[in-house]
Amino acid sequence: MPVIVLAVLEAGLRIGGYGYPTGLFEKVRIEGKDWLLNNEKFSLRFFPPELSRWPSPLMMEAVKPPGTCRVFIFGESAAQGDPEPAFGAGRYLEVLLRERYPGVNFEIVNVAITAINSHVIVPIARECAHHQGDLWIVYMGNNEMIGPFGAATVFGAKAPPWPLVRLSLALQTTRVGQALMDLSRKIKGKAAGPAVWGGLQMFLGNQLPANDPRKDVVYKNFQRNLRDILQAGRDAGAAIILNTVAVNLKDCPPFATLASTNLSASDREKCDRRVAEGRSAEAGGDWKLAAIAFGEALAIDPQQAEAEFREGECLLHLDDARSAAMYFQMACDADALPFRADSRINTIIRETGRQMKGPDLALCDAAESLPEPGKIPGQETFYEHVHFNFDGNYRLALLWAEQAEKMLPDNVKNKAKGGWASQDTCETRLGLTDWNRCDVLNAVRTRMQRAPLDSQFNNPARLTNLSERIETMMKRRNLTAATKARMLYADAITRAPRDYLLHENYGEFLELTGDLKAATHEWKQAQELMPRNPFACLTEGQLLEKQADVSGARTAFEQAVNLHPRYAEAWFELGKLDAIQGNLEDALKNYQHALSLQPNDAQTYLYMGKALSLLQRSDESEKSFRRALELDGGNWEAHYALGGELGMHGKIAEARAEFQQVIHLQPQYAMGHLNLGVALLKLNDADGARKEFNETLRLDPGNKSARGYLASIAQ
What we know:
Elements: H1 2-15, E1 25-30, E2 33-38, E3 59-61, E4 68-75, H2 77-80, H3 89-100, E5 105-110, H4 118-128, E6 135-139, H5 162-171, H6 175-188, H7 214-235, E7 239-243, H8 265-283, H9 287-300, H10 305-317, H11 321-334, H12 343-356, E8 361-364, H13 366-369, H14 390-407, H15 410-413, H16 423-429, H17 434-448, H18 459-476, H19 479-495, H20 500-512, H21 516-529, H22 534-546, H23 550-563, H24 568-580, H25 584-597, H26 602-614, H27 618-631, H28 636-648, H29 652-665, H30 670-682, H31 686-699, H32 704-714
Parallel strand pairs: 4-5, 4-6, 6-7, 7-8
Antiparallel strand pairs: 1-2, 2-3
């Protein structure tokens, strides 16, 4: 009877449309052919809806075409190519293989996803086992502690044993199980975890002692998951490249340090004093004295992550690279915010690789092979803690390509021509220009300015270095360079016309160089080549909006939310279009929906405040502007809008303060000076007002309002 009741309930939920498909792929028929496309709801089994991660857009023929070598890449954000997958290791690999084997069709299918770990990769691998992969590349291990079911996770249960994890995930393949999970999350409410995606900052409260017993559970789970992933590939007849995980050891201080809990108060005080003495000596360049101080601190507390890292720095300056590497690794292992694969993870990978080694499975020791001999991996390879820069992605791809070549069948090997393509050649084929490089580096710089990266003691130097690199590239972006870049893209697209990422990169370049019409065409091309790509729809819509094509923009934004209903940015853009067309109530609904999905977005509060102001709902408008500033105090537009709202309702002194913030943040904005002048005039500060009106005219000589106010002051 219970089985019958559950079956009826399951059938009823499915008929009623409740729930979601749980596979990574969905089969879709396009122009008479079956294709496998990414399922946008795949990650809901592993993450709460508000934190769910999207797979990269995927599209491959359900039946592999003859003569095609299909390569699956498994992993997390580093394997995906974050911060810009278009220039990740998988993309370099695609060019390397294509250039060396011009007669072979290599199909690279990157199924890596940000923030996942081995618990998520097991079902991905088992599904991919049914889709004719010739080669599997497994590069995972950075997120075992913080990803789903990790010891420091924010996504749910912490470190349950793998049988319980498998049972939970199996139940959620049913609609009944999904309903129970939804009910559980509603009961837990806010205690269930963060309400919005916040990147690494979400984990700040989940620091993990180095000897936490839950870590042992995670290691056991990882070992079991890894074996199951490799066995799935082996059973599917795929050749497998298993990788150890390279991380930034030399230039990434630990994110958090926790003192040993068994230290007495006096020992803790003594340890802290030794660390402080070491910092002081280090700042003065006395590396030997600093090393002694940090060594004494570690004698008291052997797992003091900061002291271990600083000891490594001192030893490196004292030309003892071998000992320095050991201390850098110890610092990584003791990091209380474990965002990097530690030595235990890599030991498990190496041991498993040796145990399962065979003609179809090879171990690629990326952690050892990526750095130059005798070097310790650092900023020459990584942007921050684990994500590869352009050089690092190329070198990792080359390791993969060299290993893959050994595993290719003879009839493919015989088609090899020449050596491996250089990094420059790969980047030319990928359409990597200074415009794209600047965009990536700006994204990295923004990341560096946020917690917990912003609290690392070497962060100011890293930011300075990034800014200098960006400035250098910006100077190279002239008309001659733009003409060459257009030719580069034309050649790259001729070589790979169906590469949707190339069209996206070209579209980005065209937008940055002011050719909006051509940019729109490229993004539309990208969307046609990869139909389930809400980001392409969003960008196309934004470009059409800039060209005053409101109808076309609306169609694109609606397509984006149809593909991904939780796409907050697209709902925000729909609200902006409603406001442009005077449909303010509809605009508010879309802004509120965007905020329900992304509650901490300052721009949405700013635009909602503007709509409320036009509806003469002043109190709500002011509240919305203030909320925008709580979230982003440097948003000069929010200061300007709030100043205007306050001024309209007689709060002149408060308005003056807001306009002062505007000209502080945006000194070249003429209207900020004009409105500050008006506020000062109303507060009987004629001299101050005159100064602001004159500055307005300097910035905008044709400003009639400023001239009128100056004339009135002179009378």
